[in-house]
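Worked problem 6 (solution included).
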Amino acid sequence: MKISLTIIACCVVFAGAVPLSKIRNQIPSRALKYTDSEVLNFILSLEHFQDAFYRQGLANFSQAQFAEYGFDADFYLNLTEIASQERIRVTSLTSSLLQLNVTPVAECDYFFNVTSPAVFVTEASLIEAVGVSSYIGLLAYLRDPAYLKVFSSVLAVEARHSSFIRAALGLQPFPSPYDTPIDLNEIYTLVELFTVSCPQESPLALKNYPTLSSSFSNHGVIGREVTFVTYGKDIKVGSDSEPIYAAFLTITGPVFASTIRLPGNGGFNTTVPAPPEGYAPISGLTYVVLSSSNTSLTDENILAGPATIEIYLH
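Solution. The predicted structure is:
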């Protein structure tokens, strides 16, 4: 690929800089398949999910209980503000859809398995990160410039929520110069992990990939081995001898790594890859899918995932 001298100079000065053309190539081909109203309703379903999480968690634990786990009154107050902002978005989106003569999607029934304030904050970090990545991915589906402006604003606030909670957990608040987008099916698959039932099926006819999870410590380091598990589900392509790859998602596209299938437990070992030159860093909360391809990702060749794993640079 031919790269201009301007881009070369940029990449020398700014570590981790990537060509914008690399990012443009990642815009999903199905982006024109859905109307803005359908995408807005999907965004509402995502906001219902986040709203339910905060509403349930803050109803179950008092400020005093958060304090027992080392989270002070200011932190608790900010959590209630995050909850309020999620509720405002649900109300606003519902009203907007009604004005468009579109029936707003109803809230599903969720189970978050939050057993303590510490678990709540850890899960909040995951849910906020998924929110950030979801909005980055969903912006490519919106056509009306007014909607793009509104939800770019929401994305900025989601990123603040995520950084605030990561800092409270002792994690780097902004671990990469680029956050990672996730696509509709990947968003849907992650939300389905917490979904018990819904009043209606998703109108977008999305695909729920088999569950994939990172095992043991739930974190990894570039160049070191990590394990992903499929909870006993037999993931294969043709025969056991055909390769399966772990794809680490970035805004510049997936970075593939070979896997070794573990006997009997649906597990796969892989080494966290260093991204090639011109790719965004693999750091912070990272999404990983299993695929039968090591060149591109499609709905047909994604076998499981995404799993989420915290990646440290060293």
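Discussion: Residues 1-15 have pLDDT under 50 and may be disordered.
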